[in-house]
Design a protein that fits this description.
91 residues, alpha+beta, Alpha-Beta Plaits, binds copper (II) ion
Length: 91
């Protein structure tokens, strides 16, 4: 029991230190109607490590906050592309 407590306490700082989220903006193609952003958002939220997605239909962009330890921007563009919306990372 004591040992378990020690393990929990020892692991705590690691969780706190785990990569702070990064944010990228994607330029998304093929969004032609009001429902498209929903599909794009869903496809991005499926990716493990994604924390928050905001899709803007007017500017045809998706802003994605993600955990860099769990995923990378290439996985995000791949996911929207597979959903039918090729995207590129805005630099
Ligand atoms: Cu649509």
């Amino acid at each position: 029991m004591r040992k378990l407590l020690f393990i929990v306490l020892a692991a705590l700082p690691l969780t706190l230190m785990a990569g702070s989220p990064k944010t990228v903006t994607l330029d998304v193609q093929n969004m032609t109607c009001a429902l498209c952003p929903v599909t794009v958002k869903n496809s991005l939220e499926k990716v493990a490590g994604v924390r928050n997605v905001k899709v803007d239909f007017d500017s045809k962009t998706a802003t994605v906050a993600f955990d860099p330890d769990k995923t990378k921007p290439a996985a995000l563009t791949k996911s929207t592309t597979e959903a039918g919306y090729p995207s590129t990372i805005r630099k």
